[in-house]
Amino acid sequence: MVQINLPENSQIKKGKYFKDKTGSKNLRKVNIYRWDPSSGENPRIDTYEVDMDNCPTKVLDILNKIKNEIDPTIAYRRSCAHGVCGSCAMNMGGKNGLACTTPHSEIDGDIDIYPLPHLKVKKDLIGDLDGLYKQYQSIEPWLKSNSESVTQEIIQSKEDRAKLDGAYECIMCACCSTSCPSYWWNGDKYLGPAVLLQAYRWIVDSRDEERQARLKKVADELKLYRCHTILNCTSACPKGLNPAKAIAEIKKMLATANF
Amino acid sequence: MENKSPLSPHIQIYKWHISSLVSISHRITGIINIIGITFICSLVSFIVFGENNYEMINLFLISSIGKFIILGLTWSFSFQVLSEIRHLIMDLGYGFELKTTKITGLVVIFGSIFLTVIFYLIGKNFF
């Protein structure tokens, strides 16, 4: 259901202010969402003054700098730092993206950093993605073949392989799904752009033999048709993919299919 | 502990862009159209009860509130039609590139204002 306001325990309070100690002239204010599960208090926004003269170009560099030099208690996920693993997905400057590939120069004014929207927060910038992973599992993201012997490689033409371009590159960072207002209001039933893009990836795979079953499974008022082409997903995707188009293609296939 | 977890902020912090703006406006104008057009239709149907009613409706429509309602409805209807065409094209699988969505979104926004002006001028016998 649409619920604009945050629940009582999620209202954000003003937090601590960490003044710069380096004496640098080139400072930027960084506002970071903080929530400590052990404190029992509401979430707060801590503000850090960061010396930009000694900080590399990406938002993740700012977070690392804060964690190393100012406040070691801050929690966030990160791993590869090259836009491949999808761990550091968060909301920066009001837009979802990967902290490791988002330049802080692209954000005007103070840098606001929040966890991915509309998730249960585990700590600070870490959101709970269990629901999304369960949905991912529900579309059975593996090759299904009815053939007796699968000891040989399954040949795929270049044209058929090309159909997977723009779908297989997804790193499941959840930037798209958590940017989608439909997913915010109906995330328990609507599959969301990330999972639907993966559903599409298996539907169009020429080697998969369960195409019809997959289509039927996803053809549901809530699972699929909650997409209203708001296009937050496509504009959020850090890999430049187009989940909205993939969803439209699934809808088109269903409109023209005769089961 | 799970239940204690706060919900991270969503619509409060998420940046608007043209497509999301057009999408929400599409819904709002849809509701306005249903209410507005039903209102105008029921108003006009009062004409069957005689000349006095016609005078009354006429008075209402030339008042500033009446004009505002008519003009607003013209805009929301224009917006709805243009946005619906945009959605139809998207349903065919076209126009999903980020740049294209931006352009078509702007066409919907400015086109609806343009159409409102045109309709207004037609009503004023400008042409």
Structural description of this entry:
The complex is a heterodimer of chains A (259) and B (127). Chain A has two domains: 8-127, Roll (Ubiquitin-like (UB roll)); 130-143 and 157-256, Alpha-helical ferredoxin (Fumarate Reductase Iron-sulfur Protein, Chain B, domain 2, Orthogonal Bundle), CATH 1.10.1060.10. Chain A has a six-stranded mixed sheet with strand order 1-3-2-6-4-5, covered by helices on one side. Chain A has a two-stranded antiparallel ribbon with strand order 7-8. In chain A, helix 5 runs antiparallel to helix 6 (211-218). Chain A is built from eight helices and eight strands. In chain A, a hairpin with a 2-residue loop joins strand 7 (121-123) and strand 8. Chain A is an alpha/beta fold and 259 residues long. Chain A starts with 12 loop residues before the first strand and ends with a helix. With 127 residues, chain B is an all-alpha fold. Chain B has one domain (18-123): 3 helical TM bundles of succinate and fumarate reductases, CATH 1.20.1300.10. Helix content of chain B is 74%, strand content 0%. Chain B has helices at residues 18-45, 51-62, 64-91, 98-123. The longest helix of chain B is centred in the N-terminal third of the chain and has 28 residues, at 18-45. Chain B is extended, with a radius of gyration of 20 Å. The model of chain B has no long low-confidence stretch (mean pLDDT 93). The interface between A and B is large, with 45 and 28 residues.
Summarize the structure.
The complex is a heterodimer of chains A (259) and B (127). With 259 residues, chain A is an alpha/beta fold.
Q: Percent range for helical residues of chain B?
A: over 70%
Strand-pairing-aware structural class of chain A: alpha/beta
Number of strands of chain A: 8
**Low-pLDDT ranges of chain B:** none
Number of domains of chain B: 1
How many H/I helices of chain A?
Answer: 8
Order of helices and strands of chain B: HHHH
